[in-house]
Amino acid sequence: MTTNTTMTAAVYRRFGAPDVVRIERRATPSPKPGEVLIRVHASTVSVADHRARARDIPSGLGMLAAIGLGLFRPRRPVLGMDAAGVVAAVGSGVTAFAPGDRVIASMGAAFGGHAEYVCVPADGAITRTPATMALEEAVTLVFGGITAQGFFNQVAIGPGTSVLVNGASGAVGTAAIQLAKHLGADVTAVTSGVNAALVTSLGADRVIDYNRQDFTTGGGTYDVIVDCVGNAPFSRVEASINPGGALLLVISDLWSMLRSRGQTRRSGKLVTWNVGKPGADELAHLVSLADSGRFRAVIDRSFDLADIVEAHRYVDTGRKRGNVVLRITRPEPATSLRSPRQRSI
Ligand SMILES: NC(=O)c1ccc[n+]([C@@H]2O[C@H](COP(=O)([O-])OP(=O)(O)OC[C@H]3O[C@@H](n4cnc5c(N)ncnc54)[C@H](OP(=O)(O)O)[C@@H]3O)[C@@H](O)[C@H]2O)c1
Asked: Secondary structure of 105-137 in the HEC alphabet?
C-alpha cells in the first residue's frame, strides 16, 4: 500500500468555538517501532473532542487537564479519540497486525483520529474487525463501549443485577445499557422523554424521564448506578444504591474524586471515577458482541471531514444521541458489507 507524504486533517491551533477547527494538509505520520499506521475511514466527534477544543473541563480539573491538552494552545492539534480503518503500514517489531487488516482503535488522550492517517501502538487499544462490519459502524463501538466496559470491569453484574444508567442516550449511556443487558441486568435508563424509544429499543427495562421525575426521590434502589451526566454525586444518590452496590462516576469533578475513597470506606459501596485501563481485550469483546448481533451501533448523524465544524457544532448542543460519525476517507464498497444491526436514529 502506498502512503502519501501529506494528508488531510482537521486541525485546531487555539481553544474555542467549533470554527477554530480547520481542514489542513499535514505530514503523514510514520509508524515508529511497535506502532501501526492506520488509514482512517471513520472516527467519531465525541464529547471529549468538545471538552478538549472548548476547554470545557469539570470543576477543579482545569490545571490537570492542561497538562494533557496544553495550557495556552492545544498540545495535540488533531482531535479524535477513535478510528476505524485499514492498516497501511507497521513499524519494526510488529507481528500482530499487517497492512490490509481492518481495525478499530482507541487513541484516548493521544487523539489524532480526525485525519487520514494515525499511528497507534500495536499493543494498545486496537483490534481487528470482520470484513462484514462497516467501518462507519465499527467505529461507534470504541468511545462509549470501551468506557462503559472499563467501568463494568470493576463491578459484578449478572442476571438480576439492577443497573441505573443516568444519561442513557449518549455514547457511553447507550453502550452501558447494551453491555448491562448482555450480562443479564435489569436496566433503568434516565433520559429525556424524546429518547425513551431509543433506550427501550436498546434493551432498557424501564425509562425515567428526568424532566418529570428525579430518580433519587421515587424510592427505587439499584445495585449499580452509572452516572454519565455529572449530576449524581454520591451525596445525592447514596440512598438509591443498595448495600454493597456501586456508583460509577463516568464524569465527575475534582471534589467528587477526592471524596470517593472515603465514601467507599464509610459506606461499603464502591464509589469510583476511574475507568481503569480498558484496551484491546475490551474492544475485541465489543466487536464480538456486535458481530453476533448483541450490540448495535447507535449513529445519530454522520458528517464528512470537510464538514467538521458542523459536526462540532452539533456535538456542542449536548443533545446528541449515541454517536456522531466523521467520514474521513472514501467509504468501502457497500456490496461487501452487511449492516442489519445498525440503529440509525
Ligand atoms: N471517565 C472516562 O473515561 C470518560 C470516557 C468517556 C466519556 N466521559 C464523560 O462521560 C460523559 C458522557 O459522555 P457521552 O459520550 O455519553 O456524552 P454524550 O454522548 O454527549 O451525551 C449526550 C446525551 O446526554 C444526555 N443528557 C444531557 N443532560 C442529561 C440529564 N440531565 N439527564 C440525563 N441525560 C442527559 C442527552 O440526552 P437528552 O437530550 O435526552 O437530555 C444526550 O443524549 C461526558 O461528560 C464525558 O466527558 C468520561
From this structure: EECHHHCCCCECEEEEECCCCEEECCCCECHHH
